[in-house]
Amino acid sequence: MRLDRILKNSGAVIVEGNGAIEIDAVCSDSRKVTRCSLFVAVKGFAVDGHEYISRAIGKGACAIVYEDQEALDFQLTGFERDGITLIKTDSSRRSLAIIAANFYDNPSEKLTLVGITGTNGKTTTVTLLYRMFMALGYNCGLLSTIANYVGTKGTEAVNTTSDPLTINSMLNDMVNAGCEYCFMEVSSIGVEQDRVAGLKFKAGIFSNLTHDHLDYHKTFAEYLRCKKLFFDTLPPDAYAITNIDDRNGMVMLQNTKAKTVTYSCRSIADHTCKVMEQSFEGMLLKIDGKESWSRLIGMHNAYNLLAIYTTAVTLGAEPEEVLMAMSTLLPAPGRLENIRGPRDISVIIDYAHTPDALENVLKTLREIAPDRELICLFGCGGDRDKTKRPEMAKIAQKMADKIVVTSDNSRSEKTSDIMADIKAGMDTAGKAKSLFIEDREQAIRTAIMIASQGATILLAGKGHETYQINENGKFHFDEKEIVNGIFEENR
Question: Model confidence over 51-83: pLDDT tens digits?
């Protein structure tokens, strides 16, 4: 594609060279540069792409997008500048997103792109939307925390919201595969870092906003601003769909140009839901006055299902068909997965890793089995928001009969230090009913061993993940395998 076409509306201006040259690839990673590449030097948090400009040119880059003139001049010292097109921008990060969309011929405009943002429920909602629309006969794509899908072909995901080149490449693959819809998680960090700039969303969904990512955003107000920015940038022909039961639900709509749609489980809204009854096998819902059975459980999943229903109906699907398709949906991997074992013990595996998510899951388990002993096993991730550690401890102390504190992707931090932060949130009574075991597999074995007849054990934090990360690297760790193995040993 011609360079000047790639740069259209990107805010990047050619200051030296030729805009008519043909570009074969766009890269922000110098290791991926090949002949006739456009290299975009992005200032990251750990790495500054400007430091790799000379390496990119050496590998064949014929055009460079940059924002730091001094860094560029330093990198070009001793280089022959003839034949290299230099392009200046105020924001390499934002320009990269627009450039990526242009390079792949704006694939988001050729399908119905739906994004969801919020602290909790993103993965469940997009995954189930994908499955439901596939069941309704549409070819669809999925971009989620767990996996990315082009039709039925899936690959493991790396980030909640990928980089712009990856996003647009996958959207292009979806268009080429005949996909009509794509359902995508949109993180606050992804919005703040302009990863979704240049994408045309047909609908944006807001689930909820609670304590998370303050290690990155620093304040809750900044976290809120980044979530809201997603809705502020939706086009007039899009839909802004929001949960008005969350105190920030209407805030998301304040400056949006999109058409607004509301949903609620507690008050009057465009679409409403009420939980009629529930058990470990599922729950009976009344959505817009019509009863529907779901295999999912918990009030938070009632909100997720209502968001799915609201989105589908808003996009033109028939309500009766949507309710029928919803009744066949299974939970997303690692979301309230139930493993029944000897002595009528139920082990629930869930991704809950924020205070609000942990409280929601524990509340659900308590409501479903109020007379059963409830054991909560959890840890907190290293190199992440430390302020939520004592908060999660307080919630576990309030809602569980026994607590097992353990490791959860400690990364470069010592697990013992993380556990100390968690312990600081407990009072004497909380500490008295808690065990602190660094080895997570041993912690799981202990939780099962101390469980009474018919107990419910929540393994929180890992969910779908099949690995652990510590200071020594990443290694295989699958909680379902471990639990099933322990149960087999005791049958």
Answer: 999 999 999 999 999 999 999 999 998 777 778
| pLDDT, tens only, 256-269 | 999 999 999 999 99
Distance between CA atoms of 437 and 442, rounded to whole angstroms?
7
**Which of 36, 16, 18, 37 has the alpha carbon at shortest distance from 28?**
37
Choices 3.20.20.140, 1.10.8.100, 3.40.1390.10, 2.40.40.20: CATH for 3-102: 3.40.1390.10
Euclidean distance between CA atoms 371 and 359, whole angstroms = 18
Give pLDDT, residue 479.
97
What global pTM score does this model have? 0.84
Q: Specify the amino acid at residue 247.
A: R
Q: Where does 105-326 sit in CATH, by number?
A: 3.40.1190.10
DSSP code per residue over 111-156: SEEEEEESSSSHHHHHHHHHHHHHHTT--EEEE-SSEEEETTEEEE
Token representation of residue 303: 């909100």
In sign, the C-alpha dihedral spanning 62, 65, 68, 69 is positive
**Domain boundaries in the chain?**
3-102, 105-326, 337-489
Pairwise CA distance, residues 379 & 359, whole Å: 14
Residue type for 470, please? N
User: Concatenated DSSP letters for 231-282?
Assistant: HHT--TTSEEEEETTSTTTTGGGTT--SEEEEEESSS--SEEEEEEEEETTE
Domain 105-326 matches domain 337-489 at the CATH topology level: no
Superfamily for the 337-489 domain: Mur ligase, C-terminal domain (3.90.190.20)
Q: Give yes or no for a contact between 133 and 31, defined as CB atoms under 8 angstroms apart.
A: no
Q: Are strands 290-294 and 282-287 parallel, antiparallel or unpaired?
A: antiparallel
Identify how many contiguous H helices and E strands the chain contains and give both numbers: 17, 24
- CA dist 450 and 453 (Å) reads 10
Residue 101 clears pLDDT 90, i.e. is over it: yes
- Residue 216's pLDDT band, with cuts at 50, 70 and 90, is low
What string of DSSP letters covers 320-380?
A: HHHHHHHTTPPPPTTSSEEEE-GGG-EEEEE---SHHHHHHHHHHHHHHSTTS-EEEEE--
